[in-house]
């Protein structure tokens, strides 16, 4: 089987691990930088060129599309789909997951638990917005943020008003979310492949920090999920149509709450914390679908 990984570099941990496991399974693999791809649009003959050379049709692709290249990366995924290649993450699912507002709306409609969330078009009625999420304290975050960037904790009305005024001035749209105090600065990263959970870790923020991202100095440890947490993560992945994803959950007094769903989750943190071979599970998922 021929598998292409769409990634900016073969030196990235997640990409290197996928290459290793694909070869170990006896398949051919190529790492393709999506930004160096061109597409040819022709009646019933979709084609992808890489560095000016026509690519042979692979059996499957694994999109590792970073948030900063979502538009062009999605176009390349869509072209491979037109060539009838299997993809671990569809172009539609990739777009849905990157649009935080749309993904939250879909999660809400699917019935999974999530923090109370408000969205406004540069609204200045701060009191009414905060009432929607039972705050302050509350979380205010930009729609385009990743790895904890653009996520703010407003501990009182004055700080919430100031943060909203700054983002309004910058014309940067934000969502306001309920602050889950009992989570204690921790969240769960649940890795879903197909219709099952293949690994989970608990991430704990460092002292004085409310963001648990490993890029922010958080620590991680393997965790055994409850049945409700596992079912919530799988339901969240299905609601966005993602075959491979990382689902971030908060443990609350009313059950697991979905924070967000990542369509290109990293493997390094979760493989180190759980000692599970997540990359091999992704290869098996491809084998079972072709």
Task: Give short descriptive properties of this protein.
D-amino Acid Aminotransferase, Chain A, domain 1, 9 helices, 3 domains, 5-stranded antiparallel sheet, globular, 290 residues, 33% helix, Dna Ligase, domain 1, alpha+beta, Rossmann fold
Write structural notes for this entry:
- The protein has 290 residues and is α+β, with helices and mostly antiparallel strands.
- It folds into 3 domains: 2-89, 3-Layer(aba) Sandwich (Rossmann fold); 97-109 and 182-289, ATP-grasp fold, B domain (D-amino Acid Aminotransferase, Chain A, domain 1), CATH 3.30.470.20; 117-179, Dna Ligase, domain 1.
- Helices cover 33% and strands 28% of the residues.
- It contains 9 helices and 16 strands.
- The strands form 4 sheets. It has a 5-stranded antiparallel sheet, with helices on both faces. Strands 2-1-6-7 form a 4-stranded parallel sheet, with helices on both faces.
- Helix 1 packs across helix 9 and helix 4 (100-110) crosses helix 7 (227-240).
- It is globular.
- The relative contact order is 0.15.
- The mean pLDDT is 91.
Widest β-sheet, arrangement of strands: 14-13-12-15-16
Q: Please name the CATH topology of the largest domain.
A: D-amino Acid Aminotransferase, Chain A, domain 1
> Which structural class do the helices and strands define?
alpha+beta
Helix content percent band: 25-40%
Gross geometry:
globular
Q: Count the domains.
A: 3
Rounded to the nearest angstrom, the radius of gyration is 20 Å
H/E series, N to C?
Answer: EHEEEEEHEHHEHEEHEEEEHEEHH
CATH architecture descriptor of the largest domain: 2-Layer Sandwich
Q: If you average the pLDDT, what whole number results? A: 91
Largest sheet: 5 strands, antiparallel
Residues in β-strands, percent: 25-35%
Question: What is the terminal separation in angstroms?
Answer: 9 Å
The total count of strands amounts to: 16
Report the uncertain regions. none
What's the CATH C level of the largest domain? Alpha Beta
**The named CATH superfamily of the largest domain:** ATP-grasp fold, B domain
Number of helices in the DSSP assignment: 9
